[in-house]
Amino acid sequence: xxxxxxxxxxxxxxxxxxxxxxxxxxxxxxxxxxxxxxxxxxxxxxxxxxxxxxxxxxxxxxxxxxxxxxxxxxxxxxxxxxxxxxxxxxxxxxxxxxxxxxxxxxxxxxxxxxxxxxxxxxxxxxxxxxxxxxxxxxxxxxxxxxxxxxxxxxxxxxxxxxxxxxxxxxxxxxxxxxxxxxxxxxxxxxxxxxxxxxxxxxxxxxxxxxxxxxxxxxxxxxxxxxxxxxxxxxxxxxxxxxxxxxxxxxxxxxxxxxxxxxxxxxxxxxxxxxxxxxxxxxxxxxxxxxxxxxxxxxxxxxxxxxxxxxxxxxxxxxxxxxxxxxxxxxxxxxxxxxxxxxxxxxxxxxxxxxxxxxxxxxxxxxxxxxxxxxxxxxxxxxxxxxxxxxxxxxxxxxxxxxxxxxxxxxxxxxxxxxxxxxxxxxxxxxxxxxxxxxxxxxxx
Length: 444
Fold this sequence. Notes:
alpha/beta, CATH 2.40.50.100, six-stranded mixed sheet, 10 helices, 20% strand
């Protein structure tokens, strides 16, 4: 077991963190379940069911237009209520009305080759590949597979150990995944976790966020070079693979952390992938300000509405204020001693405010401007790349420079903290995502 110490980054502490030892509660039944295709980057959905069709848990809802073997399955038994579409008939969500009984489910032949099993069950879309940070190409063989066992983002909650059943499932999953790669299966853990899975190489990452990001862990263990493919997945996905191998059924249950400054009582909620947001929140929001609901963490998550759905990749629902004080004196330029800043721009750093839980809202507090060379991006990104120059190369669509500067190693989430700290207020994650999509189109 290797210990990798990271110095770059920053731990953003927000009010509303869930206390250690909190027991999860069961969410209220969700009236509808929604699967959002945008959660599975890189695939173009083609429907396999129609409105009014009955489905059971594990049944295919749609497949990828370009790779028909890549499928997305239903997390519940029920009836297809709506196929929600947007501009140019883009599928925004597949909405399912759950049945009263959830006893029926697709069973899988676990003796089949693991790749076929992952594709047929829908677990394939829960993995990602470098380069491009998209759903893996089934025709590619990964050099290595990386499992991120902890999340270092604000308000995230991590498991510290396994039950006997989970240990067995995790080891079965690692054994199966190892047959898909020519290299190793790596698992990245934090010092607080007591996790040891046979068959995998365990690395302990010590340092601030984004130490828990897959891209950061890959870069500090074995960076991705041009022409190489690496797969990544979360600990939850690893356990789902193991559960499938040991029970022959998919596990769509999820424990969601509901946290943030606007949450009345931070808690863990047991629900199912795609459940409605209102069934998970159940009115657990403070008054006094308009809330912003974020599927995921406040740095890289996706804004959702109260009538929206739990997004498939996320196990965190963050709630912050849209704008706590719109009439604040002098606005973003106020010199209040309570003003938060990563940098020592306000007197608040003398009181140690940067290291204490704080109440931040969704305001940007400043306008977009040209990139300022202050090494801000590099200070927030513990990877051996020149982040500012990479962003410029992406904007310029300079393929040669993008490759030289490490475009194949990164994902948008790696730049989330840099975006938060950016004096220029640029949408770095959007720039990186647009650049990766454009490069993928040019190279493939």
